[in-house]
Each structure stands twice: as structure tokens, then as C-alpha cells.
Design brief:
The structure holds 2 protein chains of 2 kinds. Chain A is of the alpha+beta class. Chain A is built from 4 helices and 15 strands. In chain A, helix 2 runs antiparallel to helix 3. In chain B, a hairpin with a 5-residue loop joins strand 3 and strand 4.
């Protein structure tokens, strides 16, 4: 064996020394390699940390849902706009529209490596009621002043009344709802509570259009909400009068299903104007007469319509898969 | 001249001892430096990974929150090991916000905790390093192997 310290074994003396130094050198070398590997890990970590942690397309997925909601709303609005002979016709148009929309958007998303899909789940059939003749009063097609627009209603949307100020009856907040006072009134009866929406013009002052709401069951009055323009839009489901929020109409969101929508004192002395609403009761469109006309364009007119569409939307990228069930019914009270 | 052999033997032993002590010292200190640096590297990498998982949980949470009743699945390819050691990811939520993501490496054992605040519920779940999936199944966010 070689000597660790300079030995005296003849010819090899002085040549076989320094093994321990060699071992030490080896240890240092291994240490450096280990440190280099550690440094490599640290560099990799920094690299990971600075990579865009794109939130994996989360924004785009939510945007897709919004786009789908808008698209299907457009399809539904378009299908409801024209005259539909039957519910089968309008449902067929909505289904066809959804298919076309899915194919068009699917292709444009596919370009970016995103798979999207929209599939119809259910369609709620309903009735669209409309009076387009602004110089007609709010009576039924057969001339009744007190009449039912729809009963067994569990949902209504886009209920807009457009009244002409000068044609409204004169009254005051305290008088409306009392016996013998004829003022145009929309009534909602949900079995437990009856809500009356009176539309009239004020007896005094500038004769502003007033909307007063009364809980007929308890006798409490809310409002009035006022407007001074000649044509006043009372948006019942959006709870606005002439574009301004009207808290008196907030009961609309709390109606218990099913309820009944009726007009009272709707004759030539209480007001003229147009109105438009959708209800989820399809039976009115199936047999509109005698309250409504069955001829497109006549006032008032009831037609087959789609009330709401429920659908599944899927959005898929390399990393993300997102499925959501959506429903569109534009202009519902809680919308 | 008779004590020359003694001196040589003594010098030999002393020299051997001193060099052994020096090399041992070198070995111990460099070993400590290496393992210390490795632990710090593991810790910083786990923290980065924890924050990436937190970003994904936030994304899933946001998507789930945007549409109640939706189903979300988000995958992420994480490294299988950090500085040569495997690790475990534990998602913990005791009902009081924020939830915690605890990443624990195996050998040496280094633990890093990252907090994440979310709107939907989080269920206690565990996954190992590698490809992981963060899911929302309609009730709670969980982490799972992809």
C-alpha cells in the first residue's frame, strides 16, 4: 500500500503522496455538482414563476357564456317577432336558430383551438300579447272594460304599457281604488294578495301621469311615480315609469305563482295607448278569442311565442372544461 | 539516533489525524451547505407551485361562482419532483376563510403553506406532484390527480 505521508520505501518515495488531498478534491467536486443542480432547480423555479399564469382562459369562458346568452336571446327574440302560426312553428324556428348559432360560433372558436357547444334543453311555450294601435283604449277585442289577459301565469316578461297622457282619466292618489272612481288599472291576483296598478293623470297642477300601486288585500298604497311627457312608458317588469325606477312596482318580483293578470275600467274615458307582454301560459295563444284577435296586427292580438329557453353551454380548451346550464327569458322582473 | 523511529511514527500519526479532521470538516460543512441550499430551492419552488395552484383554484372558483350549478375542470402540469424529491399537495378548508394549500416535500421534508380566498366551498383533498386537476362538481372545489 502506498504511504499517506512521504515514505521511505525506496524508489517510490515522494511519488505516492496526497491521496487525502485527492479525496478532498473529489468531495469538493461533488459538492459543486450538487450546488449546480440546486442552482438549476432555482433557475427552473424562477422560470415557472415568471410564466404567464394565464388564468387558463377563465375570462374567455365567462365571455363565451355571455355571448351564448346574448346569441340565444337574439334567436328567441327574432323567432317571436314575426307571426307564428303555432307553438310548433316557433319552437322549430328557435331550435333551428340555436343549431345555426352553434355551428357558426363553434367554427370561429375552433380556429383558436377551443371547442364550444350549445345544446337546447327545454323551451317554455308562452303567449305574446300586443296592442300596437296607440289610439285604441285598453279594452279587450270584444270591447270588455274588465277582462282577463291571462290566468295561471307563473312568469311574465317585457310588460310595457305606453300610455298617452291626455287620454288618461283625472284622479288623485287618495281617490284611486275607491268606489265609483274609474281609472285604468292593471291587476295582479296571486290568490293571497291582489295588487292594483292605477295609471291616471293628476287632477291638479300640470296633470302629470301618475302610477299608484295599491295592495288591495291590506289597503296599503305605494307611490305615485310620476312622469310629465305626453307618451309615458310604464315598464311593469323592469319596475320603471318613463325610464325612472319606480319602487312602487317592486311587488312584481314577489308575485306568488300562479297569478292572474286583468285590466279594469279599460274604456275610452280612462286611457289609450299600446302594450306588449309575454306570459308563460301558452293556452291564450291557442284560443285567443274573444279577448284577443287571432289576426296578426289587429289590436289587441295574442300569438304563439317562446317564453324562455334553457340550454347547456360547454367550453373546452386544452386545460379547461366548463359546462353550465343557462336559461334566457329577457325582461323578467328579476332579470 | 535511537529516537528517530519514534519521531517518524509520531509525525505520521499526527499528520494523518490533522488531515482527517480537516477533510471531515470540509465534508461536513460542504454537505450542510448543499442540503441547506437544496431545502431553500425546494421551498421557493413549492411556493411558486402553490401560488400557481392558488391561481387555478381562483379561476375555478370564479367560473363556478359565475354560473351556479356549473361543472368546471381545470388541469395543470406541475413538475413531478422538486429538486429531486416528490411532494404532496393538500387542500384544506376548515370552514373559515381563507382556505390553505399545503405543499410538503418528501425527502427532505419541507412544508410551504399558501392561502387562497374563495367564494365557493372547498373540500379537503390531496394530490401528488405531476398532472393535477382542480374540479368543481356543483358543491365544492377539490384537487385531484389528472
Amino acid at each position: 500500500m502506498a504511504d499517506v505521508i512521504p515514505g521511505r520505501t525506496g524508489r517510490t518515495a515522494g511519488r505516492n503522496r496526497a491521496q487525502l488531498i485527492l479525496v478532498a478534491g473529489l468531495i469538493i467536486a461533488v459538492t459543486f455538482v450538487a450546488l449546480a443542480l440546486t442552482l438549476n432547480t432555482v433557475i427552473y423555479t424562477e422560470n415557472l414563476a415568471t410564466r404567464s399564469s394565464d388564468i387558463a382562459g377563465g375570462d374567455d369562458a365567462i365571455r363565451f357564456l355571455d355571448v351564448a346568452r346574448e346569441g340565444i336571446t337574439g334567436v328567441m327574440t327574432r323567432a317571436n317577432r314575426g307571426h307564428n302560426g303555432s307553438h310548433d312553428d316557433v319552437v322549430g324556428n328557435v331550435t333551428g336558430g340555436i343549431d345555426a348559432w352553434r355551428n357558426a360560433t363553434g367554427r370561429s372558436y375552433a380556429v383558436n383551438g377551443i371547442v364550444t357547444n350549445v345544446s337546447k334543453v327545454n323551451v317554455t311555450e308562452g303567449t305574446r300579447m300586443r296592442q300596437a294601435n296607440g289610439s285604441r283604449n285598453f279594452s279587450s277585442a270584444d270591447g270588455s272594460a274588465n277582462w282577463t289577459l291571462a290566468s295561471d301565469v307563473t312568469g311574465m316578461r317585457q310588460f310595457r304599457l305606453n300610455v298617452t297622457r291626455t287620454t288618461l282619466a283625472d284622479s288623485t292618489r287618495s281617490l284611486v281604488g275607491t268606489a265609483g272612481v274609474d281609472v285604468f288599472e292593471v291587476r295582479f291576483d296571486d290568490q293571497s294578495t291582489e295588487w292594483q296598478v292605477f295609471v291616471y293623470k293628476n287632477t291638479t297642477g300640470t296633470h302629470t301621469v301618475n302610477v299608484t300601486v295599491e295592495n288591495r288585500t291590506s289597503g296599503t298604497k305605494f307611490g305615485p311615480c310620476s312622469a310629465t311627457t305626453e307618451e309615458v312608458v310604464v315598464n311593469v317588469t323592469a319596475e320603471t315609469v318613463d325610464g325612472e325606477s319606480c319602487s312602487a312596482l317592486s311587488f312584481v318580483s314577489d308575485l306568488q305563482s300562479p297569478y292572474e293578470i286583468t285590466y279594469h275600467d279599460a274604456d275610452s274615458t280612462t286611457g289609450e295607448g299600446t302594450y306588449h307582454l309575454f306570459v308563460d301560459n301558452s293556452s291564450v295563444a291557442q284560443s285567443p278569442e274573444p279577448q284577443f284577435n287571432d289576426v296578426p296586427g289587429d289590436s289587441p292580438w295574442a300569438d304563439a311565442a317562446v317564453y324562455s329557453v334553457g340550454f347547456d353551454a360547454n367550453y373546452e380548451t386544452e386545460r379547461l372544461r366548463y359546462n353550465a346550464s343557462l336559461r334566457v327569458a329577457p325582461g323578467e322582473p328579476d332579470d | 539516533m535511537t529516537d528517530r523511529g519514534v519521531s517518524t511514527a509520531l509525525g505520521y500519526v499526527l499528520g494523518l489525524a490533522i488531515i482527517t479532521v480537516m477533510i471531515s470538516g470540509l465534508f461536513i460543512t460542504t454537505g450542510a451547505v448543499v442540503s441547506d441550499q437544496r431545502e431553500r430551492a425546494i421551498q421557493s419552488e413549492l411556493r411558486v407551485l402553490g401560488n400557481q395552484i392558488a391561481a387555478d383554484i381562483t379561476t375555478v372558483d370564479r367560473l363556478a361562482f359565475a354560473e351556479p350549478g356549473s361543472a368546471v375542470r381545470l388541469t395543470r402540469s406541475l413538475p413531478g419532483t422538486v429538486a429531486g424529491t416528490s411532494y404532496e399537495i393538500q387542500l384544506e378548508y376548515d370552514g373559515s376563510r381563507p382556505a390553505t394549500i399545503e405543499l410538503v416535500s418528501n425527502q427532505p421534508e419541507v412544508a410551504v403553506t399558501v392561502r387562497v380566498t374563495n367564494g365557493t366551498a372547498i373540500a379537503n383533498s390531496t394530490a401528488f406532484g405531476g398532472d393535477v386537476a382542480i374540479k368543481y362538481n356543483g358543491s365544492a372545489v377539490v384537487i385531484d390527480g389528472a
